[in-house]
Design brief:
This protein is about 65% helix and about 0% strand. The N and C termini lie far apart (about 65 Å). It has a two-stranded antiparallel ribbon. Helix 4 (about 60-75) packs across helix 5 (about 80-90) and helix 9 packs antiparallel against helix 10. The longest helix is centred in the C-terminal third of the chain and has 33 residues, at about 195-225. The protein folds into 3 domains: about 10-90, Multidrug-efflux Transporter Regulator, Chain: A, Domain 2 (Orthogonal Bundle), CATH 1.10.1660; about 105-160, no CATH class; about 180-229. By secondary structure, it is mainly alpha-helical. The chain has helices at about 1-15, 20-25, 35-40, 60-75, 80-90, 115-120, 125-135, 145-160, 165-190, 195-225; strands at about 50, 55. The relative contact order is 0.08. The chain contains 10 helices and 2 strands, in the order αααββααααααα.
């Protein structure tokens, strides 16, 4: 019993507070803050223990995991999702290859000329011209898969009497939502260090997803008041 209690006490003393973690890592990562540590926890990079009062306590392995994650983010510009998977493989005893820097955050796909775009989306030329004139799409020499998906959606909506001029308000709403996300990310965007820029790139799409969820709930609630049971 005494030996077990001593071991538990030693383990407890080995745990670090957020302040102690910052002290140990700030020499290599001077831009690291407590907010960034909490963000890394949310992203699954570490899972610190909690005291009865709710304070975070980091183990030595948490500290090393953080150090490696921050190094990969700073030196290799890797997204946190890629870093998390790599660390999880290491923890599982695997020997994963070092993840590579993605060439682009947007996957490359097929390139479509105007005629190919119209054919792939099943759209009439006038619908595409309307999308251009209303600012829903931008004329270009070639188009990607996202342009095809958007034009297909416009075709489907038009069949039910919702034409591009009605959709223009959605584009305006999207711009306002992007401004909300930009404001939320401004503390990170004001910094010039790569880790902050990478954190902003990681968090931005997540905030956009949450806004999509809220909008979807509002629309469905409104429809529930209109449609019969």
């Amino acid at each position: 019993m005494a030996a077990a209690a001593a071991a538990d006490g030693a383990a407890g003393r080995a745990l670090l507070s957020i302040g102690q973690v910052l002290s140990k890592l700030s020499g290599d990562f001077p831009a690291l803050t407590s907010s960034k540590l909490r963000f890394l926890e949310v992203q699954g990079i570490v899972s610190p223990q909690r005291t009865a009062a709710g304070y975070r306590k980091f183990s030595p392995s948490d500290l090393e995991r953080l150090r490696l994650a921050l190094t990969l983010q700073r030196d290799h510009y890797l997204p946190l999702g890629v870093i998390r998977d790599y660390l999880d493989d290491l923890d599982a005893g695997k020997s994963p290859d070092m993840p590579q820097v993605p060439t682009s955050i947007h996957p490359s796909g097929r390139s479509y000329a105007r005629t190919d775009l119209l054919e792939a989306a099943g759209a009439a030329p006038q619908l595409l011209n309307d999308a251009f004139s209303l600012g829903l799409m931008t004329p270009a020499e070639s188009y990607d898969d996202r342009a095809v998906a958007l034009l297909r959606a416009l075709v489907a909506l038009e069949r039910h009497g919702i034409d591009p001029r009605h959709v223009r308000t959605l584009r305006q709403s999207a711009e306002r939502e992007a401004a909300l996300v930009e404001a939320a990310l401004s503390p990170l965007l004001r910094r010039s260090d790569p880790s902050s820029r990478a954190a902003a790139s990681e968090l931005g799409p997540q905030l956009a997803d949450r806004l999509d969820e809220v909008r979807s709930i509002f629309v469905r609630d409104a429809l529930a008041r209109i449609l019969p049971d």
